[in-house]
Structures are given as C-alpha cells and as structure tokens.
Design goal:
The longest helix is centred in the last third of the chain and has 4 residues. The strands form 6 sheets. Strands 3, 4, 6, 7 and 8 form a 5-stranded antiparallel beta sheet that branches. This protein folds into 3 domains: about 90 residues, Immunoglobulin-like, CATH 2.60.40; about 130 residues, Immunoglobulin-like; about 60 residues, no CATH class. By secondary structure, the chain is mostly beta strands. The protein has 1 helix and 23 strands.
Length: about 300
Amino acid sequence: KLTSLALQPTITPELVHSRVHLKCSYSRPSAKPPLQYLVVWSRLSTPGKKEQIQRDTTLQSFSYVEMNGRNLRLGDTVFCTVTAFSRDASEQQSLPEESKGFYAGIKFLPESLQIAEDGKEHVLTILSTVPIACPGQDDSCKITLQLSTEDLGKNSQLPGPPNIALSACQVDLLRAPCSESSCAAAAVTVTAVTDFAQDGNRLSRIRAEPVGRGDLLWRAYTPKDVKVTVRDLPTGNCYSFTDPHIITFDGWRYDNYKIGTFLLCRSTSRAFEVHVRQWDCGGHRSATACNCGVAAR
C-alpha cells in the first residue's frame, strides 16, 4: 500500500463544448515512480446506496463525466472516488478517497420555510448548481421556471384556498459564472395570506417546473418542492351594527347616533383605513342613525 496521499477530490461543474460536465479534481503528489489514478464516478440511487456510472484510469489530476440526462441526470447527488497507484507496480496503491456529494440541479434556499400570517415578506432564493447551456444561437442562456403553490392543509385530500402568495409566477435563471455552488440564481418573496380564520397551522408547498426547454437534461427534470409551514395568528375584529353600536378591537363599546361620514378605523403602521357613512333611520320618533355605506382601503 502507498501511504495516505491526501488527494482530497472535489467536484465542480463545467461547460465543455456547450454541454454540462462535472469535473473531479484532486491534488497530484510528487512521487517517484510517477502515479496514475483510478477515478470512479457514482450517483446516489437510493438513500445510502451508490450506483457506479463511470471508471477512468488517467495520468491527469482530473476526470470529467457528462450529465447526459440518461445515466446522470439533474437531481442526482454525485460522488467521485480516487485511488492512486504506481505505474511500475500496480499492486502498490493508496487508500481510495471519496469526494463530498455534489447535488446537480435546482436548489432552494432556505430548503423549507416557517412563516406567520403577519404580512411579512420572506425571500426564497432559487439557484442552479450546474451551468446553463445555450442550445442555439437564438436562445438566451437561461432556464425559465414556472412557480405554483398548493395548500396541503391538515388533510391533503381536501386542499383549501391559497395559503401563501408569491411575488412572481415565473422566474428566469440567467447563466452566470459558477461560484459558491451557484451557476444561476433568482429570488422571489413568499408571504402568508391573512385569511381572518382560526384554522390552525397549515402546510403548503411551492413547486417549480422548467418550461420551454428542448434539451433532454432539463425537459425530464422537476425540482423538489419547498415545504412552507404557515403559523396561524389570531385576527383582530371590530364591529359597527344596527343603530350603530360600535365594538372596538380591544372590546370597548359605545354608540354613535350621528348622521354623516366617519373614519371608523385607521392603521398606524400601513395603508389601511375604513370609512363608514350613516343616515337617519329613526324618523320623527327617535334620533337614530344606521350604516348605509362603507369604504375600505
């Protein structure tokens, strides 16, 4: 056995002749006699189980594998394992060293969201860990993703109304130089829909599907969903009814028998207010007013 050589293999994505490849790079120790390398590529087929897809014997300090959409597809987690051995005595070999798993495909950051019905916007970043090829001269180098939401509720058999809202229904991932596991990125904001119902915490999901791509690599790929948990918040209520009795948000009660247009409520933190119009509905017998119109923004 050769001693441990600290080859430290790592996987990076690259475009080679406008096709997506993965490159396994490793350090090449200066040794005499010179070394050659066995590089074994594998993918995670089921959790905890790897499937070999390619073997290379090379004198170089790198090896390539193409993502062709058949034996290596988007959505795969890929590994490369490198063993060095002496060219003069092939039985002298190092211990195999395995790279970290490289996920090839679309990633969401964060991978799941926990938000509340408080109107806040939460940024969801969508990125591609592999470079985006330009299939032809007329096509721009981008992937268009169609976004959709689905409310899973408490009973997935009975989906309810939308529980979350997105700032966009489509995003374009434009090709950029690969850095820090991102070769293209876009962002959308996610907001919980305030539904004025005490319906408990609910589960939704966001789905992204590539559209309009002719190449096999993207056409057969659907990224993983993003799970979004929406925390239910109690909704404030206020009332104006009959002649009119008014109950405020904090439960204070009073009557307003006057005729005219009044500011019923106004938020101090956002553009929200309600005006109410009251008319005489008591006639000669009593000075009573009733609601006859409302305006809200």
